[in-house]
Amino acid sequence: MLPQFLWHESKLADLFEALTPGGEVRLHELHGSARALAVAACHAGTGRPCLVLCRTDEVATALAADLQCFLGDGVALLPEREADFDARAGRVQALHRLSAGQAPILVASVAAALPRTIGPSALAAAALSLYPQRIIPRDEALRVLTAAGYRAVGQVTEAGEFAVRGGILDCFPPQIPHPVRIEFFGDEVHSLRRFDPETQRSLGPESAVTILPLAEIPMTEMAVSAAAERLRAAARRNAVPVPPALLEALEHRRPIPEWDAFLPYFLPDLATIQAYLPPGGLIVWDEPSALAEGAGGIGYPPGGCPPGGWETDLAPLLPPREDRWASWAEF
């Protein structure tokens, strides 16, 4: 493969052999796909996972596509935090793939990388892994799905839904192409099968499935209770009311996009995305000067809310910016 060839035929191996902990290697005059090839060579030669930071989402998307040409499916792109369902679920999937070793290369823009997020251990606890012969009460599985943001429906047709019929649980995690039908026998998972959401017909057996949360917000009873308490405390402190729609969303545990800005209220111990990089991982800065400059102006009005009509009402209730966003110095 070209990355291995470049690693052995260039001086990259010598540079990394002399690299000390906390040190850096600078590569200059790389343009176009040569930047991706250099990153791919560093990964191929060292075997170390990489977090690649880019100045914009457009640059990150293009670089990730180039890296996939060299490394295949072992590359994940971290979406920027948006109200869009796919972006919110995609962030969780990308972080999970990096920490699980499924994607040893994670590419992110500065805007995608700086928001503080759920930590690896909390994300692992919020996920649901199912396989034949696993012992788990069906009601416990339903509790995890509800806390993960999945919506109960009569029949599963779209990602993010689940349905129950007796001892059968249908669920459609967005990271897989087809929903899964889980058959329980008492408290034991008896079988898993993929099925067509349009015809509801089986497509074949599945050996295992990991159902990830739909967003970085854990809607567990403990997290929701903590968020409600902190939200009301902020309202009292600033002498402003809490919008009824927010309280209703909390009561019904709906993972609305506005909660992204209130994540510190749900989880006081947040992480930066470096926490998902396995030990020994490399952080790659694409155009370092542009990264630092871009990081200085990042933040949704009023400093973290998704675009929409809520900003004026929510601004006094938001957690401090430093609790929601990492500084560039932390990278």
Please give a handful of descriptors for the protein shown.
331 residues; alpha/beta; six-stranded mixed beta sheet; four-stranded parallel beta sheet; 14 helices; 12 strands; 16% strand
Structure in words:
The structure is a single chain. The chain is of the alpha/beta class. It is 38% helix and 16% strand. A six-stranded mixed beta sheet has the order 5-6-7-8-9-10, with helices on one face. The protein has a four-stranded parallel beta sheet with strand order 2-3-1-12, with helices on both faces. Strand 6 and strand 7 form a beta hairpin. The radius of gyration is 22 Å and the shape is globular. The two termini are 31 Å apart.
Would you spell out the secondary-structure blueprint of this structure?
Elements (H helix, E strand, L loop, with lengths): L1 H8 L2 H6 L15 H14 L3 E5 L2 H15 L3 E4 L6 H15 L5 E5 H4 L6 H7 L1 E3 L7 H10 L3 E2 L8 E5 L2 E4 L8 E6 L2 E8 L6 E4 L3 E3 L9 H18 L5 H8 L11 H4 L15 E4 L2 H8 L15 H4 L6 H4 L7
Parallel strand pairs: 1-3, 1-12, 2-3, 5-6
Antiparallel strand pairs: 4-11, 6-7, 7-8, 8-9, 9-10
What is the SS-derived class? alpha/beta
Strand content: 15-25%
Count of helices? 14
Radius of gyration: 22 Å
> Alpha-carbon distance between the termini?
31 Å
Helix content: 25-40%
Q: Let me know the number of strands.
A: 12
Tell me, rounded to a whole number, the average pLDDT: 89
Shape: globular
Question: Which blocks of ≥5 consecutive residues have pLDDT under 50?
Answer: 300-312
Largest sheet: 6 strands, mixed
Q: SSE order, as H and E? A: HHHEHEHEHHEHEEEEEEEHHHEHHH
> Largest beta sheet: what is the strand line-up?
5-6-7-8-9-10
